[in-house]
Amino acid sequence: xxxxxxxxxxxxxxxxxxxxxxxxxxxxxxxxxxxxxxxxxxxxxxxxxxxxxxxxxxxxxxxxxxxxxxxxxxxxxxxxxxxxxxxxxxxxxxxxxxxxxxxxxxxxxxxxxxxxxxxxxxxxxxxxxxxxxxxxxxxxxxxxxxxxxxxxxxxxxxxxxxxxxxxxxxxxxxxxxxxxx
Length: 181
Known about the structure:
Elements: H1 2-16, H2 37-60, H3 62-68, H4 72-91, H5 97-107, H6 114-155, E1 160-163, E2 166-169, E3 171-172, E4 178-179
Antiparallel strand pairs: 1-2, 3-4
Helix pairs in contact: 1-5, 2-3, 2-4, 2-6
């Protein structure tokens, strides 16, 4: 859907300006300052990774969404701004395959740079999503381990209980029995 939106946006730009868009660069991406394909690839990989990580951390994560849901749009917008500003002078700050492909399809430009832009963005996005999934699995394993430890300690006649995902020691009263204060 995003690619279709990118193509329609570029086509609308071409139609509304009667094809008289800035002829040197009608929204197409390419390197600046003489950087090469490898540098484009890593710029796009890193900036897309940052953007996707912020999206997952603020808008997708159920645990964090309660805390960050109100600032998710601001955090995502600010990270997009920062990434575009950092990479813009070198790559144009594309950060999205649809943004690259829309003008490339409509205006027929930028195709020599297809691989570093699109693959850098796809891999960066996959790494951001993969890191989020890894964090969820580690968090689940931690929670399960804490619950098992608490159960073993309770079965042994004391120990701790799980409260908010963490172990909380039980206080003992003078008779030695745990008091769940």
